[in-house]
Design brief:
Blueprint (H helix, E strand, L loop, with lengths): L6 E4 L2 E3 L2 E3 L4 E2 L3 E2 L4 E3 L2 E3 L5 E3 L7 H12 L6 E3 L11 H7 L4 E5 L2 H9 L5 E4 L4 E4 L2 E7 L9 E5 L4 E5 L21 H15 L3 H11 L6 E4 L9 H12 L4 E9 L4 H15 L5 E5 L5 H10 E8 L1 E2 L2 E2 L1 H13 L5 E8 L5 H11 L3 E2 L5 E3 L4 H24 L1
Parallel strand pairs: 8-9, 9-10, 10-11, 15-16, 17-18, 17-19, 19-22, 22-23, 22-24
Antiparallel strand pairs: 1-2, 2-7, 3-6, 4-5, 7-8, 12-13, 13-14, 14-15, 20-21
Helix pairs in contact: 4-8, 5-6, 7-11, 8-9
The protein binds MU-OXO-diiron.
Protein name: Flavorubredoxin
GO molecular function, one term: electron transfer activity
Family: In the N-terminal section; belongs to the zinc metallo-hydrolase group 3 family.
């Protein structure tokens, strides 16, 4: 039978994932300008096995795909690699259609299934390294805690060397007709939507991600089937290496200046700092307005950029609220490889620089000593000090580069 809705991956594995172009914010926080794919896979044989489900808003499209492959047959197993609802909230609809299906999960998954969906029956609990024989198919399970939820695990089919990696190796963006790595153009946008996904969703668990990647590097992998982004059948090492670099927070030489400004004075200070960076010989310089740019992009750029400079105006004797929020999020990321710079401004009493100093001290940041604090608009001497801050940042980046 011709498959019109689904894609064949190998002689017994099908792609039955769906695209979501309606949800504007992933986890209701992270922008999705290019949407997101919820990947799901159906393994056929003596038993029919689904690997992860989809978000409930896409369930009707999904069910059509499941039915195209099953062609009236029954579904025997669902593997839930982790319970986050983008991969599980369609479960009730599937259980209504296939009430005898058994759910394969681990012992940490079971309470989540109960708490989220009141499901506690027909569970098969697997543990680290366990192999299940499911008809004529075999799957081996490995735990990857906190990548991305505590109960996260992956499964591996030895026969075809296929890894079902759940969130690991995923990215934002829908799969537009092309689903395989050799069909998708890995251009700047694809790259940045993959890195933004990792940094936003998994970044704070980077050390656990690195442990998971080390564990998976022991396997011979020919195909990676993640739950978001492309299926890697031709060049799986490309995404493996990218994820390893991201988990190590590999930074590029460059400077990201994030400012908070109400009437433009602090923005002009940021411009002066940037001139100093350029004079110091660094060419990759970005200036971002914290009030306008989603923190999703700011976190991603900060993760990948060696020099990060935060400059903020004062608001009600405290820091500009969007900068306060950004600092909270940056704290969660536990970034270790940046050089930081700070500057503050105020109208009648300070507050911003004090909070920025608190941030760099609390997070044990490697921070430059020069920390300008300016009342109102910067005068000539203050402009020189801001330029000097940029030059010092460039000098520190170049010194670090020479050490490595
Ligand atoms: Fe794609 Fe952690 O869910």
């Amino acid at each position: 039978m011709e498959n019109l809705l689904t894609e064949q991956i190998n002689d017994h594995l099908y792609y039955i994932g769906v695209n979501d172009r309606q949800t504007e914010l992933f986890e209701n926080m992270w922008p999705l300008p290019d949407g997101v794919a919820y990947n799901s896979f159906l393994m056929t044989g003596e038993k029919n096995i689904i690997m992860d489900l989809v978000k409930v808003n896409t369930i009707s499209t999904y069910i059509e795909k499941v039915q195209e492959i099953l062609d009236g047959g029954d579904l025997d197993y669902i593997v839930i690699h982790h319970v986050e609802p983008d991969h599980s909230s369609g479960i009730k609809n599937i259980l209504e259609l296939y009430p005898n299906v058994k759910i394969i999960c681990n012992k940490k998954t079971a309470p989540f299934l109960k708490n989220f969906y009141n499901i506690e029956d027909n569970l098969i609990i697997v543990s680290e390294g366990e192999t299940l024989e499911l008809g004529n198919r075999k799957l081996t399970f490995y735990m990857t805690p906190m990548v991305h939820w505590p109960e996260s695990m992956v499964s591996y089919e030895e026969e075809t060397k296929t890894l079902f990696s759940q969130d690991i190796f995923g990215g934002f963006g829908t799969l537009n007709g092309a689903i395989f790595d050799d069909q998708v153009r890995f251009n700047d946008n694809y790259y940045s939507e993959t890195t933004r996904y990792f940094i936003n969703i998994v970044g704070k668990y980077a050390s656990q991600a690195l442990k998971a990647l080390n564990k998976l590097s022991e396997l011979e992998i020919k195909t990676i089937c993640p739950v978001h982004g492309a299926i890697w059948r031709t060049n799986p090492e490309k995404i493996f290496n990218l994820y390893t670099d991201l988990a190590k927070q590999k930074v590029k030489d460059g400077v990201l200046i994030i400012y908070g400004s109400m009437y433009g004075n602090t923005e002009r200070m940021a411009e002066a700092v940037a001139r100093g960076v350029a004079k110091g010989g660094i060419t990759d310089i970005k200036i971002r307005d914290v009030g306008k740019t989603s923190f999703s992009y700011l976190l991603a750029e900060a993760w990948e950029t060696r020099g990060v400079i935060l400059g903020s105006c004062t608001y009600n004797n405290n820091i500009f609220p969007p900068m306060s929020f950004l600092m909270e999020e940056l704290k969660q990321q536990k970034m270790k490889n940046n050089i930081w710079g700070i500057f503050g401004s105020y109208s009648w009493s300070g507050g911003a620089l004090k909070r920025l100093r608190g941030f760099v001290e609390e997070n044990k940041c490697d921070v430059l000593d020069i920390q300008p604090e300016i009342q109102g608009a910067a005068d000539e001497e203050e402009l020189r000090e801001l330029i000097k801050l940029g030059e010092e940042m460039a000098k520190a980046i170049i010194a670090k580069r020479e050490l490595e």
